[in-house]
Amino acid sequence: MPDHSERQLLLLGLLRHQEMHGYQINEFIDEQMAFCVDLKRSTAYYLLERLRHEGYVTEETERTGNRPERRVYRITPAGETHFQALLRANLATYTPPTYANDIGLIFHQHLPPAEVRTLLETRRQNILAHQQKLKSLATVLPTDHLAIIRHHLIHVTAELDWIEEQLA
Amino acid sequence: MPDHSERQLLLLGLLRHQEMHGYQINEFIDEQMAFCVDLKRSTAYYLLERLRHEGYVTEETERTGNRPERRVYRITPAGETHFQALLRANLATYTPPTYANDIGLIFHQHLPPAEVRTLLETRRQNILAHQQKLKSLATVLPTDHLAIIRHHLIHVTAELDWIEEQLA
DNA sequence: ACAGAAATAGTCAGACTTGAGTATAGCGAA
DNA sequence: TTCGCTATACTCAAGTCTGACTATTTCTGT
């Protein structure tokens, strides 16, 4: 059983604020949260179905005008409780991320040092580009997200420090 | 088609060094790489089968004594080429990780500030524990891994900085 | 000498994930 | 008015991942 908890937390947190239909949830995630969670649209539908199955949300079909039916999700009292538990667990826990780019470094001796340097130089440019994107997000997204953007920026800086150390 | 590339890179890199059977590969990963890659044993078998299907490794069954048969994997010339390509791509790329614990922060206002503080204090202890574990790894693992351990330590430090900023 | 633990070597059902596809509605331009 | 493009709302087949399990061999303590 993999650990959906943070995505469940996200979905329940959104529904806690207000009832929403699937498309709306996905739109919100894509526009405001994509930079810090990885959750595709089809996966969100799947998870919502699971939350319903577990009694944490209810599903109600409605239609507006002649548009196709939509399923409106609403959090249940059990869902509220679950949300609180997930939130407490999430805040108290530290889950170290995995850095996909570590693997390359392990095998760097299989390439000529000069080429490794060039490749890492390119990586450095990509990191700088990502840093810029984060900075511009800060001006676009609501202020609730500032702490998280700052979190990402701190790590990007750490990444730049490390790669410069490797280049030296 | 998800992006196995870093795990393929890992498997090919190990086989490039010497032929190995599945169990041996898994043992090595569990003992030396678990701290920087997330790859379960059954997944490794699955990926090896895929690499074979794609012609990057060959599989040969052998038996030693009365033990059950084992499948020995050996990298092919095509696998060598693929390895080089994956390695170059990996070194030149930056793949920002996702931080599972960000989600909690988004919803922190749903709990009393004092409790949030206590929970984050606990998280901080967990980060410190993780930092210690990394430091002790540095004394146990071969020196090739030092750069990567350093990489993780830099990020753990960044994480501690950030959380202390939040607590203040 | 022999029972129980640990190591060896995988297999597989079932859960998770997602790109590609389906189907209808509104809207702007020619 | 009608052709095509975008927005709305999902669905699903196919691919991926892993916890739990099987089965045999070798050690270890008594």
Can you describe what's shown?
2 copies of one chain form a homodimer. Chain A is mainly α and 168 residues long. Chain A folds into 2 domains: 5-92, Arc Repressor Mutant, subunit A (Orthogonal Bundle); 102-167. Helix content of chain A is 65%, strand content 8%. Chain A contains 7 helices and 3 strands; from the N terminus they run αβααββαααα. The first copy, chain A, has a 3-stranded antiparallel β-sheet with strand order 1-3-2. In chain A, a hairpin with a 7-residue loop joins β2 and β3 (70-75). In chain A, α1 crosses α4 (77-92). The radius of gyration of chain A is 21 Å and the shape is elongated. The model of chain A has no long low-confidence stretch (mean pLDDT 94). Chains A and B meet through α1, α4, α5, α6 and α7 of A and α1, α4, α5, α6 and α7 of B. Chain A binds a DNA duplex (30 and 30 nucleotides) through α2 and α3.
Instruction: Tell me the series of helices and strands of chain A, N- to C-terminal.
Output: HEHHEEHHHH
CATH superfamily of the largest domain in chain A: Winged helix-like DNA-binding domain superfamily/Winged helix DNA-binding domain
Interface with most residues: A-B, 60 and 60 residues
CATH class of the largest domain in chain A: Mainly Alpha
Mean pLDDT of chain A: 94
Morphology of chain A:
elongated
Number of strands of chain A: 3
Q: What's the number of helices of chain A? A: 7
Domain count of chain A: the total is 2
Alpha carbon gyration radius of chain A: 21 Å
Largest sheet of chain A: 3 strands, antiparallel
Which fold does the CATH topology of the largest domain in chain A refer to?
A: Arc Repressor Mutant, subunit A
